[in-house]
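Lab notebook, page 48
Experiment: co-folding of the full assembly
Goal: obtain a model of how the components sit together before planning crosslinking
Operator: M.T.
Materials (sequences as entered):
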Amino acid sequence: MSEKTIAQINDDLLRPVLRTSARFWIAVLVLGAVVAAAAGAVSYQMWNGIGVWGINRPVFWAFDITNFVFWIGISHAGTLISAILRLANAPWRRPVTRCAEVITVFALMIGGMFPIIHLGRPWLFFWMVPYPSERGIWPQFRSPLAWDFFAINTYLTGSLIFLFYPIIPDFALVRDKVTGWRKKLYTVLSLGWRGTPRQWHRLESAMHIMAIVIIPVAVSVHTIVSWDFAMAPVPMWHSTIFGPYFVAGAIFSGIAGLIIAMAFLRKVLRLEEYLQPAHFDSLGKLLLMMCLVWVYFVFAERLTVWYGNESAEMAVFWTTQRGPFAPLFWTMVICNFVIPFPLLAIKRFRTTITGVVIASWTVVIGMWLERFLIIVPSLSHKYLPYTYGSYRPTWVEITILVGANAAMGLLYILFSKFVPIISIWELKVGAHKPVVVHKQVSVVRTLPAVADDGLRTTDT
Amino acid sequence: MAIKWGMVIDLDRCTGCEACVVACRAENNIPTAGADQAARERAIHWIRVERYWEGEFPDVRLRFRPVLCQQCEAAPCEAVCPTYASHHTSEGLNAQIYNRCIGTRYCGNACPYTVRFFNFYNPVWEKPFHLQLNPDVSIREVGVMEKCTFCIQRIQAAEIQAEAENRELKDGEFTTACAQSCPPKALVFGDLNDPASEAARLSRSNRGTKLLGELGTKPAVTYLEPESWEG
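Observation: model returned without errors.
Model output:
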């Protein structure tokens, strides 16, 4: 099989942007309807009061914050993976980075919405913003929720920039191919890109800086999310392990989310030749590593709690191990370890896309359960047994949960309609390295041809 | 010395009659949740009487423990509130400023005593209960947290009266609704910084314990454990 020419790359990757099929409209309609239903559920909740949710005293947080932590976790796919792969100059990253970075932005938008809609009085959420107001007070900076607000906004801003920089040359490419209002739109978006060596140099430098800056930001964001729990004296929340535990879980679920998105793009946009089994294999190895890290953290957390044998913590511990939450806990273990581990560890399964995708789906489900099991069992079993509670979601919360997933799909589809979802210029750079001198080219090790990068379109 | 309001609860005296619960409800305009909402664990009781059975049948004993906001000196609920709605006053009270509350409910999670309550809906009073609302206490709207205030309206009324009469507050001059209504006088309210007050005197008892004292929240409520308590 031969390498793709530049014209072929342009054709294949611009096709989704330039042509719209009926399938696209059907998908937009269906997902849009689900998102509209969720928006209706949120309106219903705001009109009537948050009592239409299943939360109660003492379980003041449940699906809302589970979804929040879950989506912020998913957002770690993109930026972190993409930044690390860029800095490591992994050649196979080229077709992967953009679909990963865009997950970050949308997952943050969806995740960041939950702390707002979960408020008792959501219309006052702007009191989290420090601005000189007639009320004469600022947000309280001692509160982890205030840290959260700043961390997520920083991460969202950084991720948007990180996503936008590498799109500029592709916006310019689209600009040169379209007419009418789209021409105007892409002219604005491409910021006067001409492809001069000076522009290339600046772009590469800016991308490199952002790739370095975004990594500590991403790590800090999920650490701070974990501190929403770890800072409160609640049994099994108040733990020093939570920062790294949450970051590891976030990367774990993030990679799984990325694999699912890539498998979807591959099928729907017919990108089989760009997103190859080798990419799924590489991401599968990363997922396998995070799977082991996750199991290690769960084991370390559970063992120390059990060995410490502190009464309030043990009450929570046993509800998850063999009490009312045990079915969910063991489902989580199956989804996060028992199923994905063999699928990812055994080469025969990992090298099939189906195997990696099945593992990713179970991981995504398992990680959602993990967040739920961190929040609800602890809140329902705080110190005084008299106040023990339980929790059951209502249709409103379930609709919002489903709607959030549909929103991700909808935003993703719309994005891939406006922007080439695979970075065209980066693929070309990979194919013809001398065209643009990449700063780190000199340190790239010579790799076997097949594993070189996404430009090899061999069917192996 | 500044005032520090506190309470002593003698568990040997408590009979579990729940008069305190009723008095608090009347004094502080606490809405009734109704059977359905109460079954969903949304009833609001600023003070509650916890009931624990001890031992194995037939050798069982019943224990009561009235639990209200412990007005902690190192309150976990205060630090976590992003809008300063949960706020420490100069008289040692853990105040909840309803108008600042945006309803994150984080304080309710952080409170180890689970004595913070959320308004899941706008409160309603069935007729004729709306006629007995206390004009000195504000009504809390949907989406805000609320909790025991140590009857701050009574504290303020007494302080204003004392200031008008140009004198010091006297111990026992006023008390909270729960303490006032307690038939066996199990609840004693007063200034802990006044060594002569009854509350301060009782809190020095060697039967005195703090609820979940090991958490380091420094509660302003002291429980006098029953002599035979083995827990």
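Interpretation: Helices of chain B lie at 19-27, 35-39, 76-80, 106-110, 152-164, 177-181, 198-203.
Next step: discuss with group before ordering constructs.
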